[in-house]
Write a structure and sequence with these properties.
The complex is a heterodimer of chains A (about 675) and B (about 230).
Chain A: E1 2-6, E2 9-13, H1 19-25, E3 49-53, E4 60-61, E5 80-82, H2 86-101, H3 117-125, E6 148-150, H4 160-169, E7 174-177, E8 184-187, H5 200-204, E9 210-212, E10 225-230, E11 239-245, E12 248-254, H6 267-271, E13 285-288, E14 291-294, H7 297-310, E15 316-320, H8 326-339, E16 344-345, E17 376-380, H9 384-387, H10 389-400, E18 406-409, E19 420-423, E20 443-448, H11 449-452, H12 457-470, E21 474-475, E22 478-479, E23 481-484, H13 490-495, H14 507-514, E24 517-521, E25 533-538, H15 543-547, E26 550-553, E27 562-565, E28 571-574, H16 587-597, H17 607-617, H18 660-663, H19 666-683
Parallel strand pairs in A: 1-5, 15-16, 15-24, 17-18, 17-20, 18-19, 20-23, 24-25, 25-26
Antiparallel strand pairs in A: 1-2, 3-4, 3-5, 6-9, 7-8, 10-11, 11-12, 13-14, 13-26, 21-22, 27-28
Helix pairs in contact in A: 8-16
Chain B: H1 18-29, H2 40-50, H3 57-67, H4 71-80, E1 92-97, H5 100-104, H6 107-117, E2 130-135, E3 147-149, E4 152-155, H7 159-171, E5 178-179, H8 209-225
Parallel strand pairs in B: 1-2, 4-5
Antiparallel strand pairs in B: 1-3, 3-4
Helix pairs in contact in B: 2-3, 3-4, 6-7
């Protein structure tokens, strides 16, 4: 620790802090454009100039100088910095004047207006009029992909976007061509960016040069209602902010959550907004003579009640999809228990994870932040780049720090970091062959649904556990056995025990015709054979709704307050930002009303009453934003034998189209087509 | 300088000749593992020399692939340095130094010859032989004015001897490299004798002479006012 004085206030900071960090520590605000906590230091905007004593006698870029570079005063006083002297003000005004020389005065028509760093700082350091008589620089706008609209006249060359794609996203999509006055930010010959995290450059851009294209000219930041919520596009549970105007969701932005997503979100999380408006189920439907017709809630409930009463309880089943919140799964589980069926399942992909193996057997036990501490990684049957891009960026961040050997068993894909390819299938998953180096203290084993959603999934799980134990990934306090889920609802549903009980059949068996009445709560990735009477409750008209005999319109994740448990077992609460369209209702309320019609009324009349019951039955759901400690493994003895040599395939083949909301989105469809075209080109 | 873009007409492919390929491997091997990208400038330059002194898109991609770097990184470098020509430059690429010493010694007259003989800057002449551009200092100030044509310097130019030089090159006649007068390297001009022989240069009497001159002129102007 080093003592420094900031504006006369003496503070103690680590010697590797930059002057900017030290000033912030002391409570002084430093304006900046190019500096960003999570990117490398560029030092090219010069906005963060401060005055230092014990350093060069000139305004100093505080982001690019560290505290240890300062000399103490002549009598041993701590080095002094000043952030509010006339010299600092004049220096920053000079920088601002230079920045504004070529920046167009189009704030009134710029979408960044109102949340623009340059606008805000020009209020503090800008002069009232221009002294520049010459022509302004004009730059051609670039095409850099369907998600980011460019307006390059506004660019101030902070290079945050370049550093983001090179460092965090790892694709190196963007660059600065030319030099001096002719420098231009672009992608290689205006090709579309390839990263699944590219949307983040619009958040990083301190001016209006890079803006989210789908939201172009649609809303002003100050007229939006902001709601904090949780993302459900993957099982990472990124913290998001949903911005709405009236009933309509206008955009989704990341929130900072160091434990989960830092401050990034994937493009799917950000840009499925248009999918929330299209293909919506806004009234109940009933299939009559092979055709769906609009019905009332009473008609729909009566039709369901008739079928449920006619069927024996063990011929009734329920499947939960990927986007359901804990509340409605809990309600559905209670309803199924009241009906008396053991056929419940949340694993529509056929995954063999089961609560009976213990909670630790289906959690990302190392935790997402724990990736930073790990010192070796084995990826089994997963492509984290497609299944959880934000988590993949975390792996890359750890890999960039060095000393992080990575091995892959499964698909050989571009993961944005180098790895050793070990093999394709189960035969490579050999405890003796894939041991991490002896020096590793915290090795991790990441296993994806691609390895578990197969007939011998339980055997693969048991074998992976053996490998983890042999490789010291499960030893003492450290548990590096990490299951990467792809469905936001999965861990919550497994925590609730929403898996076939003794004598019950699983989702695949139910879909193949094992039941007469099937209750489908938003499962759209599973083909249901004809024959059964299917009740589909969900928000979008997708595969599940097409096959349904009764459709009950539910709420999408932005339209309900719901609990989601992410892949590491972290319980998070999403808030309601908008209302469901038409006659659609919140899902727990539909199930509560249906239970009344079936004659087995659920004992709660409000969401609060439901949560009281939920927290009573499962206390860990009350630990919001935390991971309940003490997850344990149960015995998996006798499961490890399997001779299936089929290669592991990632559970996600098309990142952009993994759920009904994304499939309803035109923006996602365009991204998917682009990615497909790239894949074809690469294959040639 | 102006905005630099890749040429509109591009060859479909680019490959190093076997010799250049071997040379490139050696060049890459100079750098430690993981730092291969450091070889990007030599490789781009060799690619350009092999390809009529201009860099096609295929060559930029080829070099980037050889060094395992994203294409945009190689493009950044190719567009940053004016020494990389991105468009065809004819058989002889004339780079005319226009920086202060050459300018004082008549670079503008040489530019006028270029304009008259070749045409506008950065355009290949009608016969496909020449293209010219004004560049920053090429570091041969003592023999100013000068031009660089492909890999060689031609110095001590006058409009007359520069015209002859261009004619010789166009006709395929051998042209004298370096100084176009009888000067050898950067020795004093023939007939002007050795310079820097004044003993006053070495006895310390000139140190501070500038300050003294300034003081004298201030005093003189004060006197004039009075």
């Amino acid at each position: 620790m080093t003592k420094v004085s900031v504006d006369g206030k003496i503070i103690d900071v680590p010697a590797d802090y930059t002057l900017l960090q030290a000033c912030e520590e002391a409570g002084a605000e430093i304006p900046r454009f190019c500096f960003h906590e999570r990117l490398s230091i560029a030092g090219n905007c010069r906005m963060c100039l401060i005055e230092v004593k014990g350093g060069p006698p000139k305004p100093q870029a505080s982001c690019a100088m560290s505290v240890r570079d300062l000399r103490p005063g002549p009598n041993g006083e701590p080095p002094a910095m000043f952030t509010n002297t006339p010299m600092v003000k004049k220096a920053r005004e000079g920088v601002m004047e230079f920045l504004l020389i070529n920046h167009p005065l189009d704030c009134p028509i710029c979408d960044q207006g109102g949340e623009c760093d340059l606008q805000d700082q020009a209020m503090a350091f800008g002069v009232d009029s221009s002294r520049y008589g010459e022509s302004k620089r004009a730059v051609e706008d670039k095409y850099i992909g369907p998600l980011v609209k460019t307006s390059m006249n506004r660019c101030i060359h902070c290079t945050r976007c370049v550093r983001f794609t090179a460092e965090v996203a790892g694709t190196g999509d963007m660059g600065a061509i030319g030099r001096g006055e002719d420098m231009e930010i672009t992608t290689y010959l205006e090709s579309a960016m390839e990263s699944e995290l590219q949307g983040n450059v619009t958040d990083l851009c301190p001016v209006g040069a890079l803006l989210p294209a789908p939201q172009s000219f649609r809303a002003r930041s100050w007229e939006l209602q902001k709601t904090q919520s949780i993302d459900v596009m993957d099982a990472v549970g990124s913290a998001i902010r949903i911005d709405t105007r009236g009933r309509e969701v206008m955009r989704i932005l990341p929130r900072i959550n160091e434990a989960v997503n830092e401050e990034w979100i994937s493009d799917k999380t950000r840009q499925i907004v248009d999918g929330l408006r299209t293909q919506r189920l806004d009234r109940p439907y009933l299939r009559e003579n092979g055709r769906l017709r609009a019905a009332t809630w009473q008609e729909a409930f009566a039709a369901i009640a008739a079928k449920v009463k006619a069927a024996p309880p063990d011929k009734i089943g329920a499947i939960v999809g990927d986007l359901a919140s804990v509340e409605e799964i809990y309600a559905l589980k209670n309803l199924m228990r009241a009906i008396g069926t053991p056929n419940i399942d949340c694993r529509q992909d056929g995954s063999k994870l089961h609560p009976k193996f213990g909670r630790a057997s289906y959690l990302f036990n190392a935790s997402i932040a724990g990736i930073d501490d790990a010192d070796a990684l084995l990826i089994v049957g997963s492509n984290p780049r497609r299944e959880a891009p934000v988590l993949n960026a975390r792996i890359r961040k750890r890999w960039l720090r060095g000393n992080f050997p990575i091995g892959v068993i499964g698909e050989q894909a571009d993961l944005t970091y180098a790895y050793r390819y070990i093999g394709a299938g189960l035969e490579s998953l050999d405890p003796a062959a894939v041991k991490p180096p002896e020096s590793c203290k915290k090795p991790m084993l990441l296993i994806g649904q691609g390895a578990l959603a197969r007939a011998d999934g339980a055997a693969v799980l048991a074998r992976a556990m053996d490998v983890a134990k042999a490789g010291r990934a499960i030893a003492g306090d450290w548990n590096g056995f990490s299951v990467l889920h792809t469905a936001a609802s999965r861990v919550g549903a497994l925590d609730l025990g929403f898996a076939p009980a003794e004598g019950g059949i699983d989702a695949l068996a139910m879909a193949r015709g094992g039941v007469d009445v099937l209750f489908n709560l938003g499962a759209d990735e599973i083909e249901i054979a004809s024959g059964a009477f299917v009740i589909y409750q969900g928000s979008h008209g997708d595969l599940g709704a097409h096959r349904a005999d009764v459709i009950l319109p539910g709420a999408a994740y932005t339209e309900k307050s719901g609990t989601f448990v992410n892949t590491e077992g972290r319980v998070q609460l999403g808030e309601r930002a908008a209302f469901p369209p038409g006659a659609a209702r919140e899902d727990w309320a539909i199930l509560r009303a249906l239970s009344d019609a079936l004659g087995c009324k659920l004992p709660f009349n409000s969401l609060n009453a439901l949560r009281v019951a939920l927290y009573r039955d499962y206390p860990h759901f009350a630990m919001i934003d935390q991971i309940a400690p003490g997850a344990k493994f149960e015995s998996m003895d006798g499961l490890a034998a399997s001779a299936d040599k089929t290669p592991f395939k990632s559970a996600v083949s098309d990142f952009y189209l993994t759920n009904p909301i994304a499939r309803a989105s035109a923006v996602m469809a365009e991204c998917s087509a682009l990615a497909l075209g790239r894949a074809r080109q690469a294959a040639e | 300088m102006s905005v630099r873009r890749l040429a509109e007409k591009q060859p479909a492919t680019f490959a190093f000749t076997p010799e250049n390929e071997a040379w490139a491997r050696l060049e890459i091997a100079k750098y430690p593992d993981g730092r291969q990208a450091s070889a990007v400038i030599p490789l781009l330059w060799r690619a350009m020399a092999q390809h009529d002194y201009w860099l096609p898109k295929a060559a930029i991609e080829k070099v980037a692939d050889m060094l395992g770097m994203p294409h945009i990184r190689a493009l950044e470098i190719a567009t940053f340095y004016s020494m990389f020509n991105l468009e065809p430059v004819g058989k002889y690429c004339v780079q005319l130094c226009g920086t202060t010493p050459c300018m004082l010694r008549g670079a503008q007259d040489i530019a006028a010859v270029c304009k008259e003989r070749i045409g506008e800057q950065r355009h290949v002449s009608a016969d496909g032989l020449f293209a010219w551009a004004e560049v920053e200092c090429l570091g041969a100030c003592c023999n100013a004015p000068m031009v660089q044509i492909n890999d060689d310097y031609y110095e001590d130019l006058t409009p007359e001897n520069f015209r002859t030089l261009l004619d010789d090159l166009a006709a395929g006649r051998p042209a004298k490299k370096g100084s176009q007068i009888q000067r050898i390297s950067s020795e004093p001009e023939p007939g002007k004798g050795p310079t820097l022989l004044d003993p006053a240069l070495y006895d310390g009497s000139l140190v501070g002479a500038f300050n003294q001159r300034v003081a004298e002129s201030i005093a003189a102007s004060k006197q004039a006012k009075n």
